[in-house]
């Protein structure tokens, strides 16, 4: 007798309504999150595409500005280089503003003519003075060593910018002295003449500086500013003259120690196209004279430096 297993029917378990609702809510939330993420990604993509378009337009506009700025920069550099080239050409080919007429030392009886014609090979052209707000101005600077006053009753020429038409009695140029520096006869005094722009040119400005040291190097600066003529001796103002007329400038040669010159030495005759101030003049004095023989020197004493050992020049060469 076969035994059949008995089948037991399981009762149906009812799912609570709350759990169903929770599952549906969770599914809806996940779907909402997916939808939000998709929308955000799509929005970002659209913004990125719009940004790329705007960036390309910005870059294109910047490229135009950069090209324009580069062209302006090229023009500025070209103008600067052109101006620099013109200045260099003027500096090397034109006359110097503050040239040396005599560089180094020459004997006081060694006469020279410094030509102003640029066509001359050995010329040293001098520009007209600077016209500042106060008027024209210039300065002449020179070192002198006066050995002896001599016995001649005539003035002794140190230098003048003018002509060689000297008066037979005074040995002073009759026509042009712009300026003229002379050693007074038998007297340790300097005689300075500056032509002025009067109608007759017969009333030049004249200034005498007395008590010039002998057998010592002395620096002389003739400074003109408008109608005021100052003379500095070793950096100290020693004479002033208020001229009645504006100084007269000329294009004549510079004559140095001509007509016999003077008994002594001359060093570093220089022209400045402006009025040196007292500090600049004292700077020249502090530097001292140039005792090296000038390339223009033709005398054996200045060329070799063989001076009498009792003179200050001899001791200066041993320093």
Automatic annotation (TrEMBL):
TM ranges: 68-92
Pfam hit, one: Laminin_G_3
Alphabetical keyword list: Membrane, Transmembrane, Transmembrane helix
Protein name in the entry: LamG-like jellyroll fold domain-containing protein
Organism field: viral metagenome
Lineage, top ranks: unclassified sequences, metagenomes, organismal metagenomes
């Amino acid at each position: 007798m076969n035994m059949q297993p008995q089948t037991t029917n399981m009762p149906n378990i009812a799912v609570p309504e709350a759990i169903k609702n929770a599952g549906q809510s969770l599914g809806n939330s996940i779907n909402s999150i997916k939808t939000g993420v998709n929308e955000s990604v799509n929005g970002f993509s659209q913004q990125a595409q719009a940004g790329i378009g705007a960036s390309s337009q910005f870059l294109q506009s910047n490229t135009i500005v950069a090209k324009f700025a580069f062209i302006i920069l090229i023009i500025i550099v070209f103008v600067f280089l052109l101006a620099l080239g013109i200045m260099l050409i003027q500096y090397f080919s034109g006359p110097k503003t503050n040239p040396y007429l005599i560089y180094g030392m020459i004997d006081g009886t060694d006469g020279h003519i410094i030509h102003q014609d640029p066509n001359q090979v050995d010329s040293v052209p001098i520009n007209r003075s600077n016209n500042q707000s106060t008027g024209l101005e210039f300065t002449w600077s020179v070192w002198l060593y006066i050995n002896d006053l001599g016995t001649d009753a005539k003035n002794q020429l140190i230098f003048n910018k003018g002509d060689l038409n000297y008066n037979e009695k005074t040995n002073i140029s009759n026509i042009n002295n712009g300026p003229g520096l002379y050693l007074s006869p038998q007297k340790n005094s300097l005689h300075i003449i500056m032509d002025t722009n009067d109608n007759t040119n017969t009333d030049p400005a004249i200034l005498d500086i007395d008590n010039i040291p002998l057998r010592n190097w002395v620096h002389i600066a003739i400074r003109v500013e408008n109608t005021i003529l100052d003379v500095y001796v070793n950096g100290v103002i020693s004479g002033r003259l208020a001229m009645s007329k504006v100084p007269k400038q000329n294009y004549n040669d510079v004559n140095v120690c001509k007509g016999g010159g003077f008994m002594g030495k001359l060093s570093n005759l220089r022209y400045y196209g402006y009025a040196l101030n007292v500090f600049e003049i004292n700077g020249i004095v502090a530097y001292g004279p140039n005792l090296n023989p000038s390339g223009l020197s033709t005398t054996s004493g200045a060329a070799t430096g063989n001076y009498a050992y009792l003179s200050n020049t001899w001791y200066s060469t041993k320093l």
